[in-house]
Specification:
With 352 residues, the chain is mostly helical. It has 15 helices and eight strands.
């Protein structure tokens, strides 16, 4: 081989090695160099109707440099998964690609508050109106409130858990739960049941049994107690009073049940006309607990029922100082004195 040929081959080899090195370097930079230089974590939401093109558009809108995506897709298969994905400062396109391909979502919070319920119109099969609850649950997830409301109104949703349309709300416990953004309404219900079972430990179930209540009944009573008082220290006292009335066969005569029955939570003064409401939730006319809860009570309220104070009181009346607490009484005459003081205070303030 002549020296000229050797030089040519050497030069070609050097060029090939250089080109290969450059390609490797470029490939490395594409895969591992930062593709997102934002200072804050960004969130990418992938919906059921997204395509690869719309996905890349969303990434670009978040100022993610998608150069090299095609090369990654050629090297390995990619399936588009719905979800909420975190794009962190300094992430490479390879990290973003793997996170989306592997369905590595970041959880979202669903907070269920202790909220008041209401009765649905008579022409609806579901006696409890749960649209507000559906709206709250839908705030941070892909499913919309309409699909969740439809599931809440489905008979199978509560019969599968041994509940009725009226007692169905006891399944939901106020708390903040971490779920994935693309959780289905059905899976969300399963999660609520799991949390319900976790809360109702054998110890709590035994306490309810000693009070003569099922878990659902304890929750219903807790909802009445929490409408009577917002004072956590007083709740076990109020619970004890209602348990006394139940055991003695006395009507509960709880004013909040009347407000619920007439569909007006704004009532500041329950009058005789309200007490006549023909509704099973009106405890001035119907003995025992209401068919379902008036609200989704807090776990503090439920535990107040399970740990109710033992006493002899069967009457109570709001204190005349409007502190939100109550005067308790054993006899009706004592109760009348307390009621007179409260009525006078209402009149003095012009509350009708």
């Amino acid at each position: 081989m002549t020296n000229t040929k050797k030089k040519i081959l050497y030069t070609l080899g050097t060029c090939i090695l250089f080109a290969g090195g450059c390609a490797s370097f470029i490939g490395y930079k594409i895969k591992y160099a930062s593709c997102y230089n934002g200072k804050e974590k960004a969130y990418l939401y992938v919906d059921t109707d997204d395509t690869k093109d719309s996905l890349l558009s969303k990434l670009t809108a978040h100022e993610v440099n998608v150069f090299g995506w095609g090369m990654l897709e050629t090297a390995s298969s990619f399936t588009l998964h719905t979800g909420r994905y975190a794009i962190e400062p300094g992430m490479s396109i390879l990290s973003v690609y793997r996170r989306l391909r592997n369905h590595e979502q970041e959880a979202v919070n669903i907070t269920i508050p202790s909220l008041r319920l209401s009765i649905a119109p008579k022409d609806q099969p579901q006696p409890m109106k749960l649209d507000r609850l559906a709206g709250i649950m839908a705030r941070n997830i892909m499913a919309d409130s309409t699909s969740i409301a439809a599931l809440l109104a489905d008979t199978a949703s509560y019969t599968n858990y041994g509940l009725t349309a009226e007692t169905f709300p006891v399944l939901f416990l106020p708390n903040t739960y971490q779920v994935y953004w693309d959780i289905s309404p059905e899976k969300l219900m399963e999660r609520m049941k799991k949390e319900y079972d976790k809360f109702w430990t054998s110890e709590r179930q035994e306490k309810a049994k000693k009070q003569g209540l099922s878990p659902a009944e304890a929750t219903i009573l807790a909802s009445i107690v929490e409408e009577e008082t917002a004072n956590n220290e007083e709740k076990p006292m109020v619970a004890g009073l209602y348990l006394n009335r139940i055991r003695q066969g006395i009507l509960l005569q709880a004013d909040p049940t009347v407000k619920f029955a007439v569909g007006d939570w704004s009532l500041r003064r329950v009058l005789h006309v309200h007490l006549q409401a023909e509704n099973p939730y009106n405890t001035y006319r119907y003995k025992g607990l209401t068919p379902g809860p008036l609200r989704i009570p807090s776990t503090v309220g439920i535990d107040a029922v399970l740990n109710a104070v033992k006493h002899d009181y069967v009457y109570m009346c709001a204190k005349e100082d409007f502190s939100g607490t109550h005067n308790f009484a054993v006899t009706y005459n004592e109760h009348l004195k307390n009621a007179r003081k409260y009525t006078n205070a209402l009149n003095a303030r012009g509350i009708r």
